[in-house]
Predict the structure of ABC transporter ATP-binding protein.
Amino acid sequence: MLAATDLVIDIPERKSGTPLSFDVKAGEIWGILGPNGAGKTTLLHTLAGLKKPRAGSVNLNNHNIQDLRRKQVAQQLAVVFQNNGEGFPATVLETAMIGRHPFIAPWDIETADDLAIARQALQKLELSNLESRLVSTLSGGERQRLAIATALSQSPKLWLADEPSNHLDLKHQVQIMGLLAEQADTGCGVILCLHDLNLAAHWCDKILLLYPNGEACWGDANAMLTVPALERLYDQKLSMISSEGQTYFMPISSRT
Ligand SMILES: Nc1ncnc2c1ncn2[C@@H]1O[C@H](COP(=O)(O)OP(=O)(O)OP(=O)(O)O)[C@@H](O)[C@H]1O
C-alpha cells in the first residue's frame, strides 16, 4: 500500500541518518516511536506526501506520492494531525463533511450519501449530539474525536495519525485504538505516531524506532519493544511487566 524506499526525511541542520525502507501492507498497524523532536511528525508528513523527502521516495499503491495530485492522495489516505487548532468557524457536522471533499467534483455539492457517511462517522465517535455545535466550543478530547471522525468520513484505505490518543480519556483511548484496529481488520493500513508504549505494545504489529540522531530500526512489534532498545531510545530507565498475556512498560523514577 505505502512503501518507503531509501527514504531520508528532511530535518533542517540534521544529518541524514538511516535511510528508511519499509512496506506498510493492508491490515497492518505500524507505530512510530521516538522521543520529542526525533522526527516522528516529519516522517508522518513525508509519508503523507505533505513534505518532500531529502532523499528516496514514498510510493502510494505503486505511484510516487509526490507525482500524485493532492485529491488523488486524499481519496486513498487520511491524515489525523497532532494539533487540531482553530480553523474557519465551522460546526461539527460541517467539519466532518470535509472528509467527503476528495470525492466531490468542483462546483458540485455534497450528496445525501455524503451527509449520511459524515453522520455515521460522528455517531461512531459519539459526537452526534454535538453536530450543530461550533468546533471552537469543543473540549480537547471532543476535538480529537472530531478529527478522527473527519478522517473516518474520508473512508481512507490508509490512516496516518499523529498521536491519535492525544487528549483522550482511558475509555476513548481504547475506543479509538479499537476503531483503528477495526479499520486494519477491514484491509486498511494504519500508521501511528505514539508516545504511549503500552498502546504500542497492545495494538501495533510493526514498530519503527526513530532516534534523535536520525538512526532508525523497524520490525515486528515484539522484536522491537525490548527494555534495552526503549531505554536507549528514550534515555530513560524502564521496567517491563507482564500481566494476563500483556506487556506493560513503566518508567522507573528515583522517588520511592
Ligand atoms: N521548519 C523547521 N526548521 C527547523 N527545524 C525544524 C523545522 N520543523 C521541524 N523542525 C525540527 O525538526 C525536529 C523534528 O520535529 P518533529 O515534529 O518531526 O518531531 P517529533 O518526533 O514529532 O516530536 P514530538 O514528539 O515533540 O511531537 C524538531 O527538532 C523540530 O524542532
